[in-house]
């Protein structure tokens, strides 16, 4: 990912790099965080109900961005999705009765993506978006730093970097808008509650 960003920034000369690895990592982390809000990593957790309450503790769902669906009772086909509400680290099942102790509840949620030297949870469709966003933030940082300074690239260097960064930032935001819209449409289709079975319909209807 650093190599992708350096390529966009034309900063591939290892003997004279304008941005350090740590600086690019910081911009990549910001781009990953913003990408995660638009198109979170899809995650699933199975929780055990404590019994006697409709409330479940979801503090263990680390890096949680959104709660998308709750399946209860677990293991049915088609899945039985139920209405729910949340406040802080508490998930409340909007049911007539509380689940029995140790009954399983499946929670489908969105989480922050991970990107480090060892692993990445970014799907291919988001890799280019993150690289674009990180390059934009790096260029904005340099343009801000170079303002009112003597630059080898000339008087317009800072402005040119700023204009280029704004263009890349607009492209990044456009990618996130597309990914976010796609995910919302898919979530609504997948998690639409299954209606109750209908009895025989009278003739003529």
The number of distinct β-strands equals: 6
Helix residue percentage: 40-55%
Q: Widest sheet: strand order?
A: 1-6-3
Number of helices: 4
Low-confidence stretches: 148-154, 193-205
What's the rounded overall pLDDT mean? 83
Rg (CA only): 24 Å
- Cα distance spanning the termini: 60 Å
Can you tell me the overall shape? Answer: elongated
Strand content: 15-25%
Order of helices and strands: HHEEEEEEHH
Identify the quaternary structure here.
single chain
Structural class estimated from helices and strands: alpha+beta
Biggest sheet, in brief? Answer: 3 strands, antiparallel
What's the quick description here?
The chain has 205 residues and is of the alpha+beta class. The chain has helices at residues 2-9, 21-38, 124-146, 157-190; strands spanning 41-48, 55-57, 64-71, 84-87, 90-93, 104-111.
Fold and architecture overview:
- With 205 residues, the protein is an alpha+beta fold.
- The protein has 4 helices and 6 strands; from the N terminus they run H-H-E-E-E-E-E-E-H-H.
- Helix 2 (21-38) packs across helix 3.
- The N and C termini lie far apart (60 Å).
């Amino acid at each position: 990912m650093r190599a992708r960003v350096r390529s966009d920034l034309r900063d591939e000369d290892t003997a004279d790099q304008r941005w350090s690895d740590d600086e690019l990592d910081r911009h990549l982390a910001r781009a990953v965080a913003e990408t995660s809000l638009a198109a979170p990593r899809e995650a699933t957790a199975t929780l055990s109900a404590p019994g006697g309450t409709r409330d479940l503790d979801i503090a263990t769902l680390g890096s949680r961005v959104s709660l998308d669906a709750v399946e209860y009772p677990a293991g049915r086909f088609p899945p039985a999705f139920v209405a729910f509400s949340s406040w802080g680290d508490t998930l409340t099942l909007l049911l007539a009765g509380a689940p029995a102790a140790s009954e399983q509840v499946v929670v489908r949620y969105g989480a922050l993506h991970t990107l480090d030297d060892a692993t990445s949870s970014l799907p291919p469709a988001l890799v280019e978006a993150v690289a674009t966003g990180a390059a934009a933030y790096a260029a904005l940082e340099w343009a801000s730093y170079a303002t009112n300074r003597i630059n080898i690239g000339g008087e317009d260097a800072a402005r040119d970097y700023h204009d280029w960064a704004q263009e890349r930032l607009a492209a990044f935001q456009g990618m996130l808008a597309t990914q976010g819209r796609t995910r919302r449409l898919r979530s609504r289709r997948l998690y639409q509650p299954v209606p109750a079975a209908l009895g025989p319909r009278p003739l003529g209807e």
